[in-house]
Amino acid sequence: MKRLMFAIATAFAAQGMMVPSASAAVGSANFNVTATLNSACTVGAIADLAFPAYTAFTAAVVGSTSALITCTRTLAGVLAEFDTAADATSSALAVTPSGTGVMTNRLQYTLTTVKGAVAGGADATTAIIGGGDTFTYTINGSITANQAGTCGVGSCAGTQTRTLTLNF
Asked: Cα 141 to the chain's mean position, in Å?
């Protein structure tokens, strides 16, 4: 009888029936992480384009300023234009817009732009968020020669606020 009990116990043990198993149940499923990216560009602060003093009826004077642009990486087709407020014009949307304007002292000026090379930003990784592509617009201005302007005293400052708008 002891032999029979031993044989039955050995058979159950061999099949794992005597000692319950300590394994946990495992289940898994895949899922996707998704997001829609809306491309954008930002324009950094643009310093004033400050011309040197202009004396009536003399040669043209020039000045320049620049705008740092940051866009979504690899965004193609970025175009720009200047506003067309009172006494101001702009070319149609272009990679390098141009325009004219008249300051409050009634001096006419022209604007042209030069787009700098694009510096590619870094891709995001698990360690960094990455960065956008950047480029600089150099905005060149010129006050046309031989203008009279308007000034009832010895010298009069003139201004005109302009806006650079990006379209993509």
From this structure: 24
